[in-house]
Amino acid sequence: LLFKILDRFRKDNGEYDCIVPSSGGKDSSFAAHILKNKYKMNPLAITWAPNMWTEIGFQNFNNLSRIGGIDSILYTPNGKLHRYLTKLALHPGSANLISGFVVQLLP
């Protein structure tokens, strides 16, 4: 069943087959790696920049492309918007509001 689903989205023209939301952490990096190497998909990793990178987080983010061979897009909103969304995220029940807003922001 999984192979049938993946085959529906697999392209043979070099376009991306899927998008992997990527934090630069182990889970998202592993998912992108498995999609590329085990299932022969062509994933694109999308990362929303954190307010502040940790040294290891930034290394992991860079290694996904440099070592892992996964194309990646880093979206960094302007500081005012980033602070506003972070402030919203601290309020209970705000996750749906923010995720909806982000989806509308990205092309």
Structure description:
- The structure is a single chain.
- The protein has 107 residues and is of the alpha/beta class.
- Helix content is 50%, strand content 14%.
- Strands 1-2-3 form a 3-stranded parallel β-sheet, covered by helices on one side.
- Helix 3 links the parallel strand 2 (43-48) and strand 3 (71-75).
- It is elongated.
In helices, the fraction of residues equals 40-55%
The count of DSSP E runs of length 2 or more, i.e. the number of strands, is 3
Q: Rg from C-alpha positions?
A: 16 Å
Low-pLDDT windows of residues: none
SS summary, helix count? 5
Structural class: alpha/beta
Give the strand line-up of the largest sheet. 1-2-3
Shape: elongated
Strand portion: 5-15%
Distance between the termini: 30 Å
Query: How does the major sheet shape up?
Result: 3 strands, parallel
Order of helices and strands: HEHEHEHH
What is the mean predicted local confidence, pLDDT?
84
Quick overview of this protein structure:
This protein has 107 residues and is α/β, with parallel strands linked by helices.
Helices and strands in order:
Blueprint: H1 2-9, E1 18-21, H2 26-37, E2 43-48, H3 55-66, E3 71-75, H4 79-89, H5 95-105
